[in-house]
C-alpha cells in the first residue's frame, strides 16, 4: 500500500500523519490501554519533584520582588516609572510560571508516561543547551532530556502541547509530528519567564 499523506485540523492548525498503513493508535496522545498510565515515571520522580520545586521557588522569589517594588512605589503615587515597568515585567513572568505549575498537574495525572533525563551541560557558557522532548521506544514514554532547570521549563511546555493534541509521536519509530514555530515560541516564552538569561544566546 502506498503511503498517503493525511491532514487533520486541530486547534487551528494542521497535523500531518504520513501513512494510512499505520493504525491510528500508533500516534500519541491516545487514551489506549497500550499506554502505561504511569504518569511521571517512578525512577525519575525525585528529579521531577526537585525541578518543580525550583520553579515554585522562582515564582515565590518574583512575588517577593513585586511586593517590594509596590511597597516602594504606591499605586496612587508612582515615584519611579522604571520600577513600575519592572513590576509589570516581573508580574508577567510570575503569571506564566504560576500557569505552568498549575498545568504540570496534567502531566502528573496523564495516561502517558513521562520521564526526565539529565544530559551533560556544555562547557561553553555562550551556548544555549539544546534539550529535547522525544518518544522513547524502550520505555514507551515521553522523555524530557534537559541540561538544566531552564531546559526543563522549555521541554515540559512541549509536553503540555502534546497533551493538547498539538504534537504527536509515532510509537513505532519515535518520529514527531505537528511541532511548529508557534510551539517553539511558546516554549521559549515560558523559558524566558523562568530565566531571561537562559535565552540570551539565541539568535533572532
Can you put this structure into words, describing what you see?
With 204 residues, this protein is of the alpha+beta class. 42% of the residues lie in helices and 16% in strands. The strands form three sheets. The chain has a three-stranded antiparallel β-sheet, with no helix packed on it. A three-stranded mixed β-sheet has the order 4-6-5. A two-stranded antiparallel sheet has the order 1-2. A hairpin with a 4-residue loop joins strand 5 and strand 6. Helix 1 packs antiparallel against helix 2 (81-108) and helix 3 crosses helix 4 (181-194). Residues 1-38 have low confidence and may be disordered.
Instruction: Give the number of helices.
Output: 4
Estimated share of beta-strand residues: 15-25%
What assembly state would you assign to the polypeptide chains in this entry? single chain
> Which residues form runs of ≥5 with pLDDT under 50?
1-38
**SSE arrangement, N to C:** EEEHHEEEHEEH
| Helical amount | 40-55%
Mean pLDDT: 78
Count all strands and give the number. 8
Termini Cα gap: 43 Å
What spatial form do the alpha-carbon principal axes imply?
A: elongated
Radius of gyration: 20 Å
Q: What's the story with the biggest beta sheet?
A: 3 strands, antiparallel
Strands of the biggest beta sheet: in what spatial order?
3-7-8
Q: Structural class from helices and strands? A: alpha+beta
Amino acid at each position: 500500500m502506498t503511503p498517503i499523506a493525511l491532514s487533520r485540523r486541530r486547534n487551528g492548525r494542521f497535523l500531518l500523519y504520513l501513512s494510512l498503513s499505520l493504525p491510528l493508535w500508533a500516534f500519541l496522545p491516545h487514551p489506549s490501554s497500550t499506554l502505561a498510565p504511569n504518569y511521571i515515571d517512578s525512577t525519575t520522580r525525585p528529579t521531577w519533584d526537585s525541578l518543580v520545586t525550583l520553579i515554585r521557588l522562582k515564582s515565590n522569589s518574583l512575588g517577593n520582588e513585586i511586593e517590594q517594588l509596590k511597597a516602594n512605589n504606591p499605586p496612587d503615587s508612582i515615584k519611579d516609572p522604571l520600577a513600575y515597568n519592572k513590576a509589570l515585567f516581573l508580574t508577567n513572568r510570575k503569571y506564566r510560571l504560576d500557569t505552568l505549575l498549575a498545568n504540570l498537574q496534567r502531566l502528573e495525572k496523564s495516561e502517558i508516561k513521562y520521564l526526565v533525563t539529565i544530559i551533560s551541560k556544555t562547557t561553553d557558557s555562550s551556548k544555549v543547551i539544546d534539550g529535547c522532548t522525544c518518544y522513547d521506544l524502550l520505555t514507551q514514554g515521553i522523555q524530557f532530556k534537559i541540561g538544566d532547570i531552564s531546559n526543563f521549563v522549555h521541554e515540559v511546555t512541549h509536553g503540555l502541547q502534546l497533551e493538547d493534541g498539538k504534537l504527536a509521536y509515532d510509537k513505532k519509530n519515535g518520529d514527531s509530528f505537528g511541532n511548529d514555530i508557534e510551539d517553539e515560541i511558546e516554549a521559549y516564552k515560558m523559558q524566558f519567564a523562568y530565566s531571561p538569561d537562559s535565552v540570551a544566546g539565541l539568535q533572532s
